[in-house]
Hints:
By secondary structure, the chain is an alpha/beta fold. The chain is 33% helix and 22% strand. It contains 6 helices and 10 strands.
Amino acid sequence: MISLKSVSHSYAGQKDIGFSDWQINDGEQWLLLGESGSGKTTLLHILTGILKPKQGEVNINDTSIYGLSSKDLDQFRGRNIGIIFQRPHLIKSLSISENLVLAQSFAKLPTDLKRVNAVLDSLGIENKKNAYPDELSQGQLQRVSIARAVINKPALLIADEPTSSLDDKNAKVVLDLLMQQSGANQATLVVATHDKRVKDAFNNTYELS
Ligand SMILES: Nc1ncnc2c1ncn2[C@@H]1O[C@H](COP(=O)(O)OP(=O)(O)OP(=O)(O)O)[C@@H](O)[C@H]1O
């Protein structure tokens, strides 16, 4: 379970952004909606342990994440939180499979090539495991981003604007993959977007105003 209690943040010289309390139960799939500038990225950073809010508490599975030391928080994030950014951040000099092994080692988990192969297979790109990022199409790279986010079986899977630059068909493909991967890995899914096309796919919506 993930909970957000009395959280607010303000950047230097700017007014407070308040976030209403939020409880996300295991396995739920949520849409985080809000206009540009409403604070979606700020909230994602708070939820993922990147940005300590000025006030309030964030708990993930009974761990108050901002109560952890920065070293423990790094490890906690690597093991419990998978993030899919709009553009994949992969290491170009490493193969796809090596990029995934790196994500295991960042989380201080043993190399598990069986898991790497299984995740790539579930995303339909097992044949690209020895290729380098430059050799893949944009759509394939996005699948690798999803693979890297789920490789350590995180409790929380977060995607930041995963569909806004895609056409209708590919937006649906990516959304289906996210839903399928969160189900297969029993991960809670939070998708932040201002893309109203994806609204119908979710039962739960947290809206920023
Ligand atoms: N590092 C920062 N320093 C100062 N102000 C910031 C910083 N990051 C964000 N802001 C401000 O905080 C507010 C919320 O920004 P945020 O990026 O969280 O919004 P968003 O909903 O993700 O927007 P978008 O959909 O355009 O990406 C905005 O007014 C923004 O200008």
